[in-house]
Specification:
With 255 residues, the chain is of the alpha/beta class. 34% of the residues lie in helices and 23% in strands.
């Protein structure tokens, strides 16, 4: 599979097989299994007002006819993290305590998109690590990136513009899967075909979910979606003595 080097942004070769995680509602996960489609959304739907600040700047500052293009509407993305145990992320993305965390690798996730990218996939499909900076550093990067655009931005340059975030969000440790539509595309979402049972290798339920609910939903997952990966409930809030005992037994059994 031939790929441009710039399809992986801020990602080293040694990092491509690292695990990444995404918290989503059980309903959305079930929908992915049923439809075999993954959804990316426009960055303008994200809550942080600084998220798309570079593209906002382009729109406001450059009114040339050959630059008159709604850049924000040509990008779609979804967000993943390197963190597998985070109280903050569970509380933010699972407010009702009924969500799950799916696990894959950077390489598997990107190649799932890349395989569906068509003959222009080298210019439309990207994955990258978010860089965290203070506000003044972000504006310096803005100026540097803006000088690199002679006309309408394309390729990894445009994808890179949504890989900046303020240091206040550094705890998220994000990786973003990005698709750039090369032609005007008015829909709010972009979807591509993939096989969840091949891309996901682990599904973890919210640590605050009731035990009976967890048992029922995990059984439903196994029986209805033919998922053969690991299914478990996060032990983030488990009783310390039980967690400690399990670790001691594991050490004794391996010695």
């Amino acid at each position: 599979m031939k790929k441009m080097k710039n399809n992986y942004i801020n990602i080293k070769e040694s990092e491509k097989d690292k695990f990444i995680y995404r918290i989503t509602s059980f309903e959305r996960m079930a929908e992915m299994f049923l439809t075999e489609k993954m959804t990316l959304v426009k960055p303008k739907k994200w809550e942080d007002p600084f998220e798309n600040f570079i593209l906002n700047y382009f729109e406001e500052e450059d009114s040339r006819e050959d630059f008159d293009f709604n850049f924000r509407n040509s990008l779609y993305a979804n967000c993943w993290t390197f963190h597998n145990r985070s109280d903050a992320l569970w509380r933010i993305y699972s407010p009702d305590k009924y969500s799950v965390c799916v696990r894959t690798t950077i390489r598997k996730l990107f190649e799932a998109l890349f395989e569906q990218g068509g003959h222009l996939k080298n210019n439309t499909c990207f994955i990258g690590k978010v860089e965290y900076s203070n506000q003044s550093e972000m504006y310096k990067k803005l100026q540097l990136l803006k000088t690199q655009f002679d006309s309408r931005p394309k390729g990894s340059g445009l994808a890179e513009t949504i890989l900046f975030k303020r240091t206040a969000f550094q705890h998220e440790c994000e990786v973003r899967l990005i698709y750039q539509e090369l032609f005007p595309y008015e829909k709010e979402i972009f979807q591509f075909d993939f096989y969840p049972d091949l891309i996901f290798d682990q599904i973890t339920f919210d640590p605050r979910m009731g035990k009976n609910t967890y048992k029922a939903l995990s059984t439903y997952l196994r029986e209805n979606f033919n998922f053969n990966g690991k299914v478990m409930q996060s032990s983030l809030y488990g009783k310390p003595e039980k967690i400690f005992k399990k670790k001691i037994n594991k050490i004794n059994n391996s010695s």
